[in-house]
Amino acid sequence: MTRTPEPSGTAPVRRLFIALTPQAAEADALHAYAAALPCRGGRQTARRNLHLTLAFLGDVAEARCAPLVDVLEVIPFEPFALSFDRVGAWQGGLVWVGCGQAPDALRRLVDAIRGQLDALGLPVERRPFRPHVTVWRRVRSTGRMVAPQLAWHCGGFALIASILAPDGPSYRTLARFPRDEPAIVRSGDHDDH
Question: What domains appear along the chain, each with residue ranges and CATH number?
């Protein structure tokens, strides 16, 4: 893949990722499950920030957002359900919940997104896809964690901007797919996620 370099400090950029987001009741259930985990130290992911990353793009020039939306629009999407039945911790104190078996529809979606990003010259993750939702960060230690039995019903995916702050990131949904109306990708014109 040939990556098109981003302008250095001259053009506005956005820190972007593509993700699945839960419906309200699903977010409530996952947030409550995470709150009950025996995590010491760290910070629980805010309910409004729960998501499953399909692709992380990092800093992308504002001018490339509209072409990105255009290629994401053509990705075929079939609704599917996710079963979260795993919990674990990675180095750095990141606690996650995940899927023991990812649905084929999810794998096809990730492959299609990666293909479109590659065609645009945007960064593409080369590691195998491991579907998970981060529920805690910077945890010092955990006790015995019981796996969840939670489900999400996925009816689409979203292009999201991450705004970093000392008290944690906030996310703004720029576009949802599939969609029936034009995306809003102009600077300062965002829906809260």
Answer: 13-181 (3.90.1140.10)
Phi, psi of 27 (to 5 degrees): -65, -40
pTM of the model: 0.86
Distance in angstroms (rounded) separating the CA atoms of residues 105 and 62: 30
pLDDT per residue over 145-176, tens digit each?
Answer: 999 999 999 999 999 999 988 887 899 999 99
CB-side neighbour CA atoms (13 Å) of 23 = 11
C-alpha torsion sign, points 40, 33, 77, 49: negative
- The residues, any chain, with a CB within 8 Å of residue 95's CB and separated by 6 or more, are 34, 37, 39, 42, 87, 88, 89, 134, 135, 136, 137, 139, 142, 145
